[in-house]
Write a structure and sequence with these properties.
Strand content of chain B: 25-35%
CATH class of chain A: Alpha Beta
Shape of chain A: globular
Chains: A mainly beta (85), B alpha/beta (394), C alpha/beta (446)
Largest interface: B-C, 46 and 41 residues
Structural class of chain B: alpha/beta
Oligomer: heterotrimer
Order of helices and strands of chain A: EEHEEEEEE
Radius of gyration of chain B: 21 Å
Strand order of the largest sheet of chain B: 5-6-4-14-15-16-13-17
Number of domains of chain B: 2
Structural class of chain A: mainly beta
CATH superfamily of the largest domain in chain B: FAD/NAD(P)-binding domain
CATH architecture of chain A: Roll
Largest sheet of chain A: 5 strands, mixed
Number of helices of chain B: 10
CATH class of the largest domain in chain B: Alpha Beta
Bound molecules: flavin-adenine dinucleotide, FE2/S2 (inorganic) cluster
Number of helices of chain A: 1
CATH topology of the largest domain in chain B: FAD/NAD(P)-binding domain
Distance between the termini of chain B: 33 Å
Number of strands of chain A: 8
Chain lengths: 85, 394, 446
């Protein structure tokens, strides 16, 4: 499968989560907090902390650790609070 | 808990109404103790969205109290800042303005009638066309048939405001006791109040204020001076934090109608606004129930539809929370503020339904005016305790 | 038609579904993950197929979240969204039932410490889930810290996934703890053999296990570059002059587990000491609602499965099915609970962690609320009570709804019932407004 991560093409395996794709691509963080602008990535890994938010196909506030990638997904870092496009 | 000393007045309930009454009394030199069975500002006040509105009030005593309170809040906040310092007195006060939006042809007439009446009562209202409305609120629906702008509508954070009022009370030597339930009133032979009972103990005082919010009816009944205050449930949806989405309080023109409706059945009408934190709050529903706080998904669905109707873009935004509360409802939709002629020394300050946050400043002031015999800030007549709609037979 | 609804597809939920189905009732099992297994039996998501097969009569709703549980007359309506996590392209469904089994499990508890909000700090469970489920190592050089036997499989999985584990820091001194217990209560525990295997594997890789030590700060600008570890006294206060720096790019922290309570709270089940209170048949305080697994106490996968089997049978019985008493499972649950109690005693949480915080340490990660702000609310504003504290500080008001910070904030503010003070979440997981606005089909109570 092919997905885009912040514009760059990546290969992904079926069943992988967005978080796994991002970590495998060497990304330790993929969002900034809305108040302090601090970087965040994975923390709890099982969907409870909401630290791993990412924009998938224009939709923000998607938990990267819970979302399974689909072919052609456009994955983008989330900059603080965002509106769906 | 050690024994609580005596005071001139014991205020029962540390919601925003009790806190405002206690602050105003203490400012007039009265020695006050506030007690609450829970923690301060942890009941209805914690559910309040914090609107300080004039736009949603029907002309008459309700609007008069609202206008007085809207005027009083900024002055009161200045006084608090002076007394307890800016950090403790910071309550996220913001004059953001309100927009009443009609989205159907039928809603245009009633909105025009309401604004005309409000204008006649001295409220500032501006009629906008759809383009201007969308300049102010770019995410607003295109299906607009009429919009009115109320520039004076304001907002504050109810829990912080209550904490600030209580901090002022403390600064003046007053006391607050959490976890203390008042379960009776001690009276002398003439029937006048001499204490507030808390189990086996009583706090000696010469007056008590029933500021028990939606429980004020129940409390008044247990002490033998019943007033008709009932819970009316409201739910609010909270979205994930968003970048600046809506600047004003925006509501469907049907809102005033729903507030004023005496119906026990579910009434919803869309009210959308942002908080300082970036979340968008979506109300509002009204249903008279007992203190039943079970989740009702059908209500949430109505709220969601209403909000999307005003702001289509919200459809893609996550709702992260829903919460509810019980508004203290009176059959004639007016609060009860004053002394109870049936029991000298018993005062009530309650029944503010969905407007207690906004009305708190003037309520505290009015109660203190009446208590100390000063010129009252508004005509107290419509709020008196012995009106037939309120005072029930013991 | 009689229908049991099971929420959660871990060891407890799977066992409940099997037990109920074997009594001849229809079962719907709902789980957020694409595959069965929950945490303990997490499957590699990249392999095709499901290792677990549920019997006929069980409908498994995979990739399905229960976002609300609504009490209705004589039962509950369970609201589900099915599809890619967090929407918006999910389908909605509401399922009514008179026999609800909750098996929503638990998640790691982590005390806050300076730098714990840096990327590269993970919960132990995250490291485990990424290694087991995705084959990804969260770091190259990793330190594992916290307390409890769970740290051992986490370190082992990290090694299997390709990490170098610098050390395991165990905040307690379990050997002393066990020794102090007459009879050595952990002997005979089925997991003991499993733990011994982990121990051997770690010894092979020269991974040191340091007792009474913890990571008390993570250092780095935009990600973890190193951590500071210290020896702890009995109360978990750092012992002066024992600070040591480890150069790592990740740290996995786990101090035990917190149950995922919101479904049980929504169903109005009584909570006791932070867990759902249940009777010997796993019945909660609400008739027709049963709870099993880590929701009722932390005791590992075997106990969870035993409780699940009991709960499933009880739920079927509730619907009038002929049920043979699950005596074996009840016995296993009793034994498991004894070991769970021994475990809790051997790996307690000590109050000294509060001293690891600085005023600037983030406590609520979502809303970025620092320890100093919580102190200000409590000490200067005199705010008490979970609800007003949340509103005054915004701690717990973010997207995780206080799952991560709730217990910590409550403890730091000395609120009563700290373990579940923030557990009321009527909307269990976020749903998009457009999803909420939809009419959904309702499977009515049979
Ligand atoms: C969803 C919702 C949204 C709202 N939004 C707004 C808004 O935007 N603007 C606005 O102006 N208003 C709003 N309101 C209304 C507002 O919240 C209330 O009118 C106001 O909070 C009432 O305050 P109170 O002090 O009377 O009651 P409460 O805050 O309920 O305080 C009463 C206190 O009395 C205590 N008590 C009761 N019985 C006893 C006893 N026997 N002994 C000791 N203590 C006792 C209780 O513990 C409680 O703390 C809203 C209400 C709801 C439900
Ligand atoms: C991240 C993590 C990893 C762990 N790994 C191990 C390990 O490797 N070895 C070990 O011995 N122990 C491990 N544990 C401990 C583990 O919790 C238990 O031993 C065991 O898995 C508990 O079983 P359970 O059935 O009670 O809950 P779980 O196995 O946690 O299952 C609960 C299930 O409920 C689902 N769920 C929860 N809420 C909802 C909802 N609202 N809607 C839909 N589904 C929902 C979850 O998706 C999950 O699949 C781990 C714990 C965690 C938190
Ligand atoms: S890492 Fe916690 S929700 Fe994804």
């Amino acid at each position: 499968m092919r997905v885009r991560v912040d514009g760059a093409e990546h290969v992904a395996e079926r069943g992988q989560t967005v978080a796994a794709v991002l970590l495998a691509a060497g990304r330790g963080s993929w969002r900034t907090t809305r108040i302090g602008g601090r970087p965040r990535g994975l923390f709890c890994g099982i969907g409870v902390c909401f630290d791993c938010l990412v924009v998938v196909n224009g939709v923000p506030d998607v938990r990267a650790c819970q979302r399974v990638v689909a072919d052609g997904d456009d994955i983008r870092s989330q900059d603080g609070a965002e509106l769906p496009s | 808990m050690g024994r609580i000393e005596s005071a001139d007045v014991v205020v029962i309930g540390a919601g925003i109404i009790g806190a405002a009454c206690a602050e105003a009394l203490s400012a007039a030199g009265v020695r006050v103790i506030v007690v609450d069975r829970g923690a301060p500002a942890s009941a209805t006040t914690a559910s309040g969205e914090g609107n300080v509105l004039v736009s949603d009030k029907e002309p008459g005593p309700q609007l008069e109290l609202a206008v007085a309170s809207r005027r009083r809040w900024p002055v009161l906040l200045d006084e608090l800042r002076e007394l307890i310092g800016p950090r403790l007195a910071s309550v996220e006060w913001e004059v953001k303005g309100g927009l009443a939006v009609a989205t159907t042809a039928e809603a245009v007439g009633p909105l025009a009638a309401l604004t005309a009446a409000q204008r006649a009562s001295g409220v500032e209202v501006e009629d906008l066309d759809a383009d201007r409305a969308r300049e102010l609120e770019p995410h607003l629906t295109e299906q607009i048939t009429a919009v009115s702008h109320f520039p004076d509508d304001a907002q504050l954070q109810p829990v912080l405001a209550t904490a600030a009022l209580l901090a002022a009370l403390r600064a003046r030597g007053g006391e607050i006791h959490s976890g203390v339930t008042v379960d009776g009133i001690a009276t002398d032979r003439s029937g006048a109040v001499v204490g507030a009972r808390t189990g086996a103990d009583a706090i000696p005082c010469r007056a008590v204020v029933n500021a028990c919010g939606p429980w004020a009816g129940h409390f008044s009944a247990t002490i033998g001076a019943p007033i008709d205050v009932l819970p009316r449930r409201g739910m609010v949806l909270v979205t994930a934090p968003l970048p600046r989405f809506v600047g004003r309080k925006v509501y469907d023109a049907g809102y005033v109608d729903a507030v004023a409706s005496p119906e026990a059945d579910l009434r919803t009408s869309a009210v959308v606004e942002s908080t300082a934190a970036g979340t968008v709050l979506i109300g509002s529903s009204r249903r008279r129930t007992a203190f039943d706080d079970d989740l009702d998904v059908a209500v949430l669905r109505c709220l969601a539809r209403g909000a999307i109707g005003l702001f289509p873009k919200l459809a893609g935004v996550p709702v992260m929370r829903a919460y509810g509360g019980f508004r203290p409802y009176t059959p004639d939709r007016l609060p009860v503020i004053g002394e109870d002629p049936r029991m000298p020394g018993l005062w009530h300050a309650t029944g503010h339904e969905g407007a207690g946050i906004g009305l708190a400043a003037a309520t505290g002031r009015l109660l203190a005016d009446l208590f100390t015999g000063r010129e009252p800030v508004v005509d107290p007549g419509p709020f008196r305790v012995d009106r037939p709609e309120i005072a029930l037979e013991a | 038609m009689r229908r049991v609804v099971v929420v959660g597809g871990g060891p407890a939920g799977m066992a409940a579904a099997k037990a109920a189905a074997s009594c001849g009732v229809e079962v719907v099992l709902i789980d957020a993950a694409p595959k069965l297994g929950g945490q303990y039996h997490r499957q590699d998501a990249r392999e095709s197929g499901d290792r677990f097969k549920l019997p006929d009569g069980v409908e498994h709703l995979a990739e399905s979240v229960v976002w609300a549980i609504e009490p209705i007359l004589e039962g509950h309506r369970v609201h589900v969204r099915t599809g890619p996590a967090d929407g918006p392209d999910r389908t909605g469904r509401a399922i009514e039932t008179r026999a609800l089994v909750l098996a929503t499990g638990a998640y790691d508890w982590t005390p806050p410490f300076p730098g714990w909000d840096l990327p590269g700090v993970y919960t132990a469970g995250a490291a485990q889930a990424m290694a087991k489920g995705q084959g990804v190592a969260v770091g190259e050089r990793v330190i594992v810290a916290g307390t409890g036997p769970f740290l051992l499989p986490v370190a082992t999985s990290l090694i299997d996934a390709g990490s170098r584990v610098s050390a395991i820091l165990e905040a307690n001194d379990p050997v002393a703890g066990f020794a102090a217990r007459p009879g050595g209560a952990l002997a005979g525990w089925t997991k003991a053999g499993e733990l011994a295997q982990y121990g051997a594997a770690l010894a092979r890789h020269d991974v040191p296990l340091r007792r009474r030590c913890a990571v008390i700060a993570a250092l780095g600008e935009d990600r973890v570059e190193a951590v500071l570890a210290a020896r702890l006294d009995e109360d978990w206060n750092p012992v002066p002059h024992t600070m040591r720096r480890f150069e790592v790019d990740a740290v996995a922290v786990g101090f035990g587990f917190t149950p995922q309570l919101e479904s049980a709270v929504a169903a109005r089940c009584e909570i006791e000491g932070g867990f759902v209170a249940v009777n010997a048949a796993q019945g909660t305080s609400v008739p027709g609602v049963f709870a099993a697994g880590e929701l009722t106490g932390i005791g590992g996968a075997d106990l969870a499965a035993a409780e699940g089997a009991v709960a499933g049978a009880a739920a079927a019985k509730r619907l009038g099915a002929k049920v043979r008493a699950p005596i074996g499972a009840m016995r296993r649950a009793r034994v498991g609970r004894r070991f769970a109690a021994a475990l809790a005693e051997a790996y307690p949480v000590r109050p000294g962690w509060r001293g690891w915080l600085r005023d600037g340490t983030i406590v609520c990660r979502c809303e970025e609320v620092a320890y100093g702000e919580i102190r200000h609310a409590v000490e200067d504003l005199d705010v008490g009570g979970a609800r007003s504290l949340k509103l005054a500080t915004r701690a717990g008001l973010g997207l995780c709804q206080g799952r991560i910070c709730g217990r910590n904030v409550a403890e730091l503010a000395s609120l009563p019932d700290a373990a579940d003070a923030f557990a009321r979440r009527p909307v269990a997981v976020p749903v998009r407004l457009g999803e909420l606005a939809e009419d959904v089909p309702v499977d009515e109570a049979p």
